Amino acid sequence: MDRFMAVERALRTSAPHALLDTVRNALIGRYTACSVDLLMADYAMTILQPVDALPRTAAPVAINGSPAGRAFGAQEPYIETGADGDPVTLHLPVSVRGDRTGILSVRLPAEACDAGTVRELGELAEVLAHEIVVAERDTDLYLQARRADRLTLAAEMQWELLPGRSCSRPEYDIGAQLEPAYAIHGDNFDWSASGDDLTLTVTNGMGEGIEAALLTNLAINALRNARRAGLSLVDQACLADQAVYGHYQGSVHLSVLLLRFDLATGETEVIDAGSPKMYRVRGGKAEPIELDAQLPLGMAEDTPYSAERFRAEPGDRLLFVSDGVYDVASPTGERYSERALTRAMTSTRLLPPSQVPRAVLHELSWHRGPAAADDDAMILCLDWRGRP
């Protein structure tokens, strides 16, 4: 059995909580590694935290400006070299289908770090990522390692509801982020793809704390229930509207954008049921997409919904934002506004979608100033390539 297959088999048969020990022992024995560390990205996507220590007991690594952060951002292996003859450190992305989880840092003798070894270790980091996703059903270890602070209960509920924070397929790339990461209330996003289409949901929550999280959970699961039953986009909106109204009788409601993209043609259905907004960059020009606003989910009984259509073209970038982004005021009272958003989209046009939300939120924090955020902020970026 070759060394790659031996390590892969060891990971697949490892106990869920012991993945780091397993990969560390295997790489030391099979690849002559000097040390092996696993770092997990925190919920705010600003630091990488070590897994082999209890939460908040070991020094985290900043994503911005560090060798490990460079590998995380570029999603490419990065080799950190030392003095002549000293071991090198290879930083490898731990990601699943574009969803960035963390970094595997492997310290190797310089003579052992050839192109073939880098390629094999990169593939093993991907195997490790898949095993972490499966292991999280049975252990809290990796979820704990992502926490730089304690999550509020509402935030715990919201993060558990998400499909991920990024996703990559030949037809598209998605990146998304919620803030404040450790105290989010009701904003959310969801996606699901089949062989034929991509369904995307962007939610602007109402209320605060657990009540906001419960409302969003009800609506998202109603939408998923309808989608998994094979219903049309319009029927998904109607079923979720009935679920929210049936429970709250119109006392609260939820703003949602629903989209379904045809992967082969780019033809897209969209239902604008509230306040999330959509912007597009096409041919270097950023502009808002104006849609016919319909009632939010749960505002009235038996609300009829209708879908509009547009076509996503290869090279399009779509940005979806909640009112916690475009309505944020500066210390002087100036709203962040459409102009600032289109400027931010233009300035981030060279970044991959996984990095765009963090970059826009960073600019938003400068606009808001020292004041704490008083509303959730949700940003989702979609790059559309389509099929040849």
UniProtKB/TrEMBL annotation:
It comes from Streptomyces venezuelae. Pfam families: SpoIIE (PF07228). Transmembrane segments: none annotated. Residues 169-384 form the PPM-type phosphatase domain. The keyword Hydrolase applies. SUPFAM superfamilies: PP2C-like. Signal peptide: none annotated. This is Phosphatase. GO terms for molecular function: phosphatase activity. SMART domains: PP2C_SIG. PANTHER family: STAGE II SPORULATION PROTEIN E, STAGE II SPORULATION PROTEIN E-RELATED. Keywords: Hydrolase.
